[in-house]
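#struct-queue
[09:14] JT: dropping the first one here, sequence first, then the structure tokens:
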Amino acid sequence: MSRYFLYGTRFSEFEQMMMLVPNFTQRKKGLIIMENLTAESSQSNATYKRLVKNCFANFRHRYLNKRLQKLIQSFAGEWFLTPAHKQRFMTICKPHTSKKVCAIIYLISADEDLWNRALGNIHSGEVRLIDIPLRGINTDGYALYQTARTIDTGKEYIHINEIADEQLIGNFAFRAIIHGILIAKNGGHIVQNNIGL
């Protein structure tokens, strides 16, 4: 049983904030994704650079910022890593799918091995991440999985230092992680409508 009563509802983030110590600022090394409760219509004309900068403005990590700069400069308008990735994502995520589920599906579908392991655990817009077998998975697949778990639960399973480390997480997985975080914050429509060109 979860210690949160509102887990899985749109008010779960408020409950998590209420459990924090008052007047205590969090360390800036963690990765906590909080879903906006208000829909912003101005996202339709947002550029990729602006989306990335708005999402990661609070992180003061030199190596992460360097990697983000490289990612912004190399962005050619394609959100998906491969055509197979796009096909896997589009079969599951529909316009009515929540931001969180779209982000999790994006991350899991980025790695073919992780996707094959997760297929039996995706049911009617819900992903049971805890049931995905991880034995023998590669480092990038594990990083994608831990980012998906962080987005799903709001608990920190992957650290900014790990994401920023080029020797630990390759460019392929880094790009997928950043795009997954952007989807969790802004919704799946940014990928489906190719926002950011």
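[09:21] JT: and here's the second one, same format:
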Amino acid sequence: MPLFNHLYISLPVAVAIIFLVLWYTRKVKARLQGLESAYLSHLSQIYAQSKRRYTLIPAMTEKVREYAPEENSLLKEIERESSRAGVAVEHLKRDFRNPGAFSELRNRENTVMHRLTVLNEHLVRYPALRNTASFCEISGELKTLEDKIAFNIRLYNDSAAEFNSYCHGNPLRKIISHLLGFRLHAPVIEGMTRPAPENTAETEEAPAPQKTPPAGN
């Protein structure tokens, strides 16, 4: 009889424990899915904006080539490295959980950054180019894209850090996250914001108005 009493008491306790475990697991899963959805949303924006960026850079180099054919060697380097960076963006899109994909894109971006920085320095010698509406439009859109990419990188990093912190915040959540398939950290993006060619047109300062002496009495 005492054995049956013991089983009678233990059964509700076991059911309650199972219920709590299932409830907590569902809660953790929902939270992880929400955090993952957030950082993936920002990452998709980075994909789209980066793809557009590497479509615009060749258009910009073609416009520069019209006014500065002597920069052709540098422009070819920019086009070649931009193409490679565009391929790296596609690799990242297919394998975003791989930190190596982020490293590849960062290295490609660093090379593009260096070439664009050199080009920006050279563009000072071509005020006619910098004053053209088409160049201003392209470089202005590039600058806007850079701002958007930088903004989404900050949002992505914040979301990824929150996901990683929650996923591995305590041993129980870590075990549950692994059982549910959330096995990898969301990599943090570093060093992927780049300057766009400046489109500031050179303007001459208006001469200061000359003071006229008061008429004599």
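[09:30] RK: nice, looked through the second one.
[09:31] RK: The mean pLDDT is 80.
[09:31] JT: good to know. The CA atoms of residues 47 and 179 lie 30 Å apart.
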